[in-house]
Design a protein that fits this description.
The chain is of the alpha/beta class and 197 residues long. It has one domain: Rossmann fold, CATH 3.40.50.1950. Helix content is 35%, strand content 19%. The protein is built from eight helices and seven strands, in the order βαβαααβααβαβββα. Strands 1, 2, 3, 4, 5, 6 and 7 form a seven-stranded mixed beta sheet that branches. Helix 1 links the parallel strand 1 and strand 2. Helix 1 packs parallel to helix 3. The chain is globular and about 50 Å long.
């Protein structure tokens, strides 16, 4: 009796510059990379790839991400472009996704490796999973989130206000829900509830 090996699900995992969440997201990236039958391709925006902050050095984050995924990091527009025509990914995660990236995606601006990766991936009508992390989610970014909710191929990681008293317009995704969010998106369903108490 012969057995057919199942082709691994190709998961793109894109980082944008919400540096304060990198440690949380990298922890979840490890879990995603260990998921049975998933292969993870890392992508980083120019800022995420190159900027040192009080939260850590860019080279250290790059080394961690590359070691976890065992793949070179896509970090240029040139390298992101083939994602579409070559159908490289089955699902694309943007975690963390900044307000800047939300705005670009909602308004058709594709001038970074991450935004172009999303555009290229969406041309194949395949799912994108967004994990919001921005201080203006309930202010100027709210309309962009609403616009993206109307795209049938975009799904959100459940999210909540992270500090309603000190930062009343800030929202951060619950990164521990990344795996179920990806699984739901692959089934073309939005994980519920989207808004957490």
């Amino acid at each position: 009796m012969t057995t057919t090996l199942q082709k691994p699900v190709q998961v793109g995992f894109a980082f944008t510059g919400s540096f304060c969440t990198f440690s949380q997201v990298i922890s979840q990236l490890e879990a995603v990379a260990q998921h049975p039958n998933w292969e993870v391709i890392p992508i980083m925006s120019p800022n995420a790839y190159s900027i040192d902050t009080r939260f850590g050095l860019a080279k250290d984050f790059r080394a961690q991400i590359q070691k976890i995924c065992n793949h070179e990091i896509i970090h240029t527009i040139f390298d992101a472009e083939p994602i579409g025509p070559k159908k490289l990914l089955d699902v694309l995660v943007v975690a963390p996704c900044t307000g800047n990236t939300l705005g670009k995606l909602a308004n058709g601006i594709y001038d970074t490796s991450v935004t172009l990766a999303v555009k290229a991936h969406l041309r194949n009508a395949r799912p994108v999973v967004i994990a919001v992390s921005t201080n203006d989610a309930l202010a100027s970014s709210a309309k962009n989130i609403g616009t993206l909710f109307n795209n049938r191929h975009i799904f959100f990681v459940p999210m909540a206000q992270d500090n309603a008293q000190s930062k009343p317009t800030s929202i951060v995704a619950d990164f521990t829900k990344l795996i179920p969010s990806i699984e739901s998106a692959l089934a073309e369903k939005q994980l519920q509830p989207v808004l957490l108490g």
